Description:
Elements: H1 10-26, H2 31-38, H3 42-56, E1 61-64, E2 69-72, H4 85-94, H5 98-101, H6 124-136, E3 138-144, E4 153-164, E5 169-175, E6 180-185, E7 189-198, H7 207-210, E8 212-219, H8 225-235, E9 242-247, H9 251-257, H10 269-272, E10 274-276, H11 279-282
Antiparallel strand pairs: 1-2, 3-4, 3-7, 4-5, 5-6, 8-9, 8-10
Helix pairs in contact: 1-3, 2-3
Amino acid sequence: MIQTQWPLRWDLLSRYRLIEIIAYWEGRLTTKHLIDAFGIGRQQASKDINTYLKTIAPGNLVYDKYIKGYRPSQAFIPKLTRGQTEEYLQLVAAKQSLNDTFADLHLGLQHAEALRVPLRNTRPEIIRALITAMREQQRLEVDYVSIVSPNRDGRIIVPHSIVNTGLRWHVRAWCEKNQDYRDFVLSRFRGEASLLGPSEHGLDGDSAWNTQIEIHVTADQRLSPAQRDVVVRDYGMLNGRLTIPSRAALAYYVLQQLNIDPNSIHAKPEAQQIVVQNLSDLEPYLFH
């Protein structure tokens, strides 16, 4: 069980936690991870890794000359983290998780609450395989389930990016079965993942991912002028419009965060409040 008090400076604790999270979830830790994250020298980064191994978690990591870095040992047990997917994915999203690292920091604001989306179960073995496949642009064979196909369905994919939609995490990947780039929810991978070698289908070939678009949002015209003014001020609109830049492949998720259903209009404008002005421009990139 993770401790809540540590006899370590916060800067050291942050570096040790990064060591643990990267090694456990990516399967490969190098001094460069620490150098890039904290702006320290290679000698200090090497010292931090050695100190972690000697005083924090002996036997947790082993050096692998083939990957030129440290990997988690068979006896790996998280000491400074909980071993939850959320810790790594928050690191991906924010570079460093302030909630976990500085949990005991006392600020002037005494009462605040943030809602958390329930965690979806994802095994570290799957994350490691995905990270390796993304780093090396490799084909990855893995079983996948969905609501439409709840039975295991073998897929060969070439992942290139991990995405947080605010409600879930998914990986963007080329799918050999569908011959197209698709989104795969991380928690729906099953079984063991196998690397199958290099692929020509990488990030550069995903046109929807590489296409930048603008989503124009305005107050629902069914509202009264006074009500529209409230909405305009809520969203900080300029000239009655809010412009949101997005990758075309993520347009649907932006609308989801805004609680806008592109396929229907809410019967009550007070519930809808905002609408998309340029919905026809987004149509090619939305799910139906």
